[in-house]
Design brief:
Helix 2 packs antiparallel against helix 3 and helix 6 packs antiparallel against helix 7. This protein folds into three domains: 175 residues, Immunoglobulins (Immunoglobulin-like, Sandwich); 141 residues, no CATH class; 44 residues, no CATH class. The strands form four sheets. It has a five-stranded antiparallel sheet. The chain has a five-stranded mixed sheet with strand order 13-12-14-15-16, covered by helices on one side. A three-stranded antiparallel sheet has the order 2-3-6, with no helix packed on it. The protein is built from seven helices and 16 strands. It is 29% helix and 33% strand. The chain is elongated.
């Protein structure tokens, strides 16, 4: 989006019609004004006309001053980098008063999210010209997946609390919510924990000495071991030891096969299996394992750092259940995992039997059914 188009959209938002609402005091004030109006016209009393003019002037002043409050305000949203379903997240809202001379008083800012209830609102008593203020609110997303922030609302009842003026601004932003990591069974953790710190030495880039070999064209001259090379009358190169972590492959079964169970129950079991897979990935990477995630339609690369964990959580957050009547996706899912005989698999799913692992060794089978976890041999 170009700067000119962005400015035109901002100017258009400034001219959008405002929405008005009556407060409890405003309803009483309006009724009193209406009664005084009737009385003044019926009696012709000058004192009632004077009172009516004062009441109407307060209404006009309220409309003009409230317009000055919401005019020239912009808000920016700062979303957290990692959000998990069912866990509170903090969202930062920065409001800037772009007016040169007029401050804004008694302002309420509220975010809007598609398919989510009313969010907490932020209240600012005063925002001076050119000032930027910041507020933080807490929000909890009930489930994983993509959530859309559509915009925000600016509300004020300044100065007399008679009328509430509301302005809606469109600021769309997407937020990917990760599945809530579920703690794996203690039996599986005890088995894996015994091997979590083991490493397999291999040739590569590291800090420990691995061995010597003959010099080859393209080798770094700085790696030559000069004393041994002079003694043997040939160039020898130092090789360092690379510590390869133990690897684990998480195989997730997300087939939509209720098999006589209610759809809601089966969907909950699938979500529980995804959360269990997220918890396993988090725990294994924390222990130093190299983790690969295999679903029925894709396979990730192996990794053992926090960036790789973020990649795995993104895959789990966007995972769908083809065939689910509540989802729009209609494509089928392959009934097998793409694994190799070298993979050490942990099978996770809502039911047994699992798809074939094509001869790959299986460390554990975790079944998340009827809200409970079980480990099968």
């Amino acid at each position: 989006m170009t700067a000119g188009l962005r400015q035109r959209l901002a100017d258009l938002e400034q001219r959008l019609p405002r929405r008005f609402g009556l407060t409890r005091v405003g309803r009483t004030f309006t009724i009193v004004t209406f009664l005084v109006c009737i009385g003044s016209f019926n009696t012709g009393n000058n004192l009632l006309y004077l009172l009516l003019g004062m009441l109407l002037s307060l209404i006009i002043a309220s409309a003009v001053l409230s317009e000055q409050v919401v005019k020239g305000l912009t808000a920016e949203r700062q979303l957290p980098t990692q959000v998990f379903a069912g866990q509170p997240a903090l969202v930062v809202i920065q409001v800037t008063n772009t007016k040169r001379r007029v401050p804004s008083f008694s302002l309420t800012v509220q975010d809007r999210v598609t398919e989510l209830g009313e969010l907490p609102s932020l209240y600012f008593l005063r925002i001076d010209p050119g000032e930027t203020v910041q507020g933080i609110y807490r929000v909890t997303f009930p489930q994983r997946g993509q959530w859309l922030f559509t915009g925000y609302e600016l509300r004020t009842s300044f100065p007399f609390e008679l009328f509430r003026k509301l302005v809606r601004r469109s600021r769309p932003a997407g937020l990917l919510v990760y599945p809530n990591p579920l703690e794996p069974p203690a039996m599986v953790l005890a088995t894996l924990g015994e091997r979590g710190s083991r490493r397999r030495p291999a040739q590569g880039q590291g800090s420990d000495f691995f061995g010597l070999r003959d010099f080859r064209p393209g080798d770094d001259v700085r790696a030559i071991h000069w004393k041994t090379s002079a003694r043997r009358d040939q160039w020898l190169v130092r090789e360092m030891e690379r510590q390869d972590a133990e690897s684990v492959t998480l195989c997730l079964d997300h087939r939509w096969q209720p098999q006589g169970r209610r759809a809601a129950v089966h969907r909950a079991d699938l979500e529980r299996a995804i959360s269990l897979c997220a918890g396993l990935a988090q725990r294994l990477i924390g222990w130093g394992y190299s983790v690969t995630l295999v679903t029925l339609d894709q396979r990730t690369t192996a990794g053992q750092d926090t960036l790789h964990l973020d990649t795995l959580l993104r895959v789990l957050a966007m995972l769908t259940f083809p065939g689910d009547p509540e989802q729009q996706e209609t494509a089928g899912t392959a009934g097998r995992w793409r694994v190799t005989p070298r993979d050490q698999c942990i099978l996770v799913g809502p039911q047994s039997p699992f798809p074939s692992t094509q001869g790959a060794p299986i460390l554990a089978r975790l079944v998340a059914a009827q809200g409970e976890l079980s480990v099968t041999p």
